[in-house]
Amino acid sequence: MPIFHPQPDDEGKPVAIKYPSTPTGIEAWAAPAAIATVVPDGPVPTELNGVALTPWANYPRTDEGWAYLDGINEDLDEPPMEASGKKPAAGAVILEPDGRVWVVHPTNQFGGYQATFPKGRVYAGLSLQGAELRECWEETGLQVRITGWLGDFERTTTRSRLYLAKRVGGTPAAMGWESQAVSLVPLSKLGAMLNGAADKPVLERLMQVVATRPKLCPEDGEVIRHSGK
């Protein structure tokens, strides 16, 4: 008997999950050295690292709402995205204070990815930052705030701008249909988790940034800056 994602796709159709992911025990969320994984509507703690894990009820319903969300970082000095002939995309590496990073497991390993960072194409009416906030919400169920620019990366069909971000609300149990699981992964285990070749340069850049910082996750109001191109 097939297992269906609790959320329908963009056309309102049910989404069958061919090979469901396996969640970890709830105790893994409180262990910084452990990988913690949740499946759609699965159990999670009430809070993590001092921030509640509760559904984001008032998420924007319009492009304008995403464009003017609090998570937009107007103080961020980011370069214009260079034209490459590929469609623009945006996403984020979402960091936790305990040294772990959020990744998504695309439903039915879409695109060949077992695990990757949340991201998606930028469509008309949204900025790169606005698109990043929406993609993170749709794929992880999390409300995030942008804290830095990580870089622009070539992928198969897109040129993707990846930001650094921190979680400020939401819950991974509310992931949209594009994800069949969401994991919180220690930095030391991230390389083994990411199976896509296009994510390797992202991880390399992330490790360069982390090496220059005493804390993985920025304080409130802090903007991460680096000289990467």
UniProtKB/TrEMBL annotation:
Pfam families: NUDIX
Top-level division of the source organism's lineage: Bacteria
GO molecular-function term, one example from the UniProt record: catalytic activity
Residue ranges of domain Nudix hydrolase in the record: 85-208
Matching CDD domains: NUDIX_Hydrolase
Protein name, UniProt field: ADP-ribose pyrophosphatase YjhB, NUDIX family
Lineage, top ranks: Bacteria, Pseudomonadati, Pseudomonadota, Gammaproteobacteria, Pseudomonadales
